[in-house]
Amino acid sequence: MHPDVTSILISEEQLRARIKELAAQISRDYAGKHPLFVCILKGAVLFFSDLFRAMEIDCTCDFLGASSYGAGTSTSGSVELYKDVTEQIDGRDVIVVEDIYDTGLTLDFVKNHLLAKHPASLSVCVLLDKPARRLPGIDVRPEYVGFTIDPYFVVGYGLDCDQEYRHLPYIGIKK
Ligand code: IMP
Ligand code: MG
Questions:
Q1: Which residue of the set 99, 102, 108, 129 is catalytic?
Q2: In order along the chain (175 residues), what is the average pLDDT of each group of 10 residues?
């Protein structure tokens, strides 16, 4: 285990099993459709790549860069879009893939940004949900949630602290 991590909250095996279930569920829900996955950079990259490769139906992908955190472990309160999608969203069945639903500012922003491009449908898939951290007025309601967790600051499997620890294969609680 990494020395900056106090304990492993979600192991590699737990991640693998749950992501397989999520991919099967999304494949069933979108049977006969051709969804476009929109991965939110950078935190969702590892989750997205495992979810996407487990999909059992034809689908495409795109990437959107948004960040709400500055340095450290608390949100800056505003969301910056630093890279927009390049695929056409109009008429597509879009599935937003995000690492974590925390205060909700990022997902609320991303959802509204993509809805303005007139997708046929839009759903949200998050690996982690931290309901205790939600800000008032935020109501994203992700259709797919990997794990609901207590309000720890977690790192690994894409999630960072000052850009570090993203490569860890598990979700760990940061010291
Ligand atoms: P929100 O906008 O507050 O919901 O935060 C979403 C973003 O904050 C995520 O995309 C993460 O990059 C980051 N974030 C929130 N909680 C954590 C955490 O526990 N560890 C690492 N990053 C986090
Ligand atoms: Mg992020």
A1: 102
A2: 97 98 98 98 98 98 86 70 98 98 96 98 98 94 98 97 97 97
Whether the CB-CB separation of 54 and 20 falls below 8 Å is answered with yes
Hunting for tokens 């935020």 — which residue is that?
A: 138
The amino acid occupying position 15 is L
pTM for the whole thing? 0.95
Residue given tokens 């999520």 in the structure block = 22
Structure tokens at 18: 């749950």
Looking at the CA of residue 103, tell me the nearest atom of ligand 1. 3
CB 114 within 8 Å of CB 38: yes
Cis link prior to 117 (omega < 30° from 0)? Answer: no
Structure tokens at 72: 């450290």
